Here is the input.
Amino acid sequence: MGVKTLYGQECRFYYQDFYRGRSTQECRLIGRNLDSERWQPSLCRDCPVPVILRDNACPNMALEAKIVKGFLGLTRHVQVFAVCTLSATEVKEPRVGCGQCHLHRPGAAIFNAQEKS
Here is the structure.
């Protein structure tokens, strides 16, 4: 379970603490990337990470994110890179997944047998 961002999306990487006068807001996914631009709470508005986490709950998918400058450096947005730790491949569409992990789930052989017949 994550914390709701200022824009109402739940994200397990977003952290905020306003208890007893504190004013802490951070993205723990972007914060650990040293190649990224500086994070600001306004970037949560269009961040793809909460949508990816909602649509794909695969435990084998590892996410990395960084902030990149947009056209002419006027805008900034979050860029996500996903890797499947089971198949050791880059995940082209993180919302869908790599397509390999569901084959290793218990009971998946039943569905594969139906597809072949």
About this structure: The chain has a mean pLDDT of 85. Residues 7 and 45 are 6 Å apart (CA to CA).
